[in-house]
Amino acid sequence: MKKEDKSLLISSLTETLNKYPHFYLVDLTALDSQTTSDLRRECFKQNLKLVMVKNTLFEKALESKEGDFSSLKPILKGTTGVMFTEVANAPAKLIKSFGKKYNGVPALKGAYAEESIYIGADQLDALATIKSKNELIAEVVAMLESPIKGVISALDSAPNTIHGVLDTLAERGE
């Protein structure tokens, strides 16, 4: 491959890395062409971008991205596919469901999700249950709103309660 072509591929990968906040590194070695096509189709349906990369070119693209990705270098061996995504846990769920059909393939090598690096296939369950920042913020807001809603509800019903008590007392007094 010519040096100019490599430069173009690296800049394209860097652009894609900057566009998507999360990526997963997967091993697709054992998949035949039909199964790979099915996986690509499923990725497209779930708004995931699946790209096959040369490991050295992907390393160069990672070097131009902010952050320390040196812990991913040891797993960049063999055939590597990269799943780029906006939603941190979407590729993990796809890998789990697809792996059930095809005996653990694709296999997770590593991932960068929610500003953390995960290495190894044993991290798949953790990645599948990871919540996005927006989901966590929504949960905190809901927890904070719950007591306030209870107080407002009690205040709204207070006049009716006091009125009911007064009516009961008035009936007893007669």
Distance linking N and C termini: 102 Å
Order of strands in the sheet with the most strands?
A: 2-3-1-4-5
Q: What's the CATH C level of the largest domain?
A: Alpha Beta
CATH architecture of the largest domain: 2-Layer Sandwich
> Within the CATH hierarchy, at the fold level, what is the topology of the largest domain?
Alpha-Beta Plaits
Percent helix: 55-70%
Question: What radius of gyration results from the CA coordinates?
Answer: 26 Å
| Overall 3D shape | elongated
Uncertain regions spanning at least 5 consecutive residues? none
What percentage of amino acids are in beta strands?
A: 15-25%
SSE topology string = HEHEHEHEEHH
How many strand elements?
A: 5
The biggest sheet, with number of strands, parallel, antiparallel or mixed sense and barrel status, is: 5 strands, antiparallel
Mean pLDDT: 84
Helix/strand/pairing class, anyone?
A: alpha+beta
What would you note in describing this structure?
- This protein folds into two domains: 3-130, Ribosomal protein L10, N-terminal RNA-binding domain (Alpha-Beta Plaits, 2-Layer Sandwich); 131-174.
- The protein is of the alpha+beta class and 174 residues long.
- The protein has helices spanning 3-19, 33-45, 55-63, 90-101, 124-129, 133-173, and strands spanning 22-27, 49-53, 80-85, 107-113, 116-119.
- Strand 4 and strand 5 (116-119) form a beta hairpin.
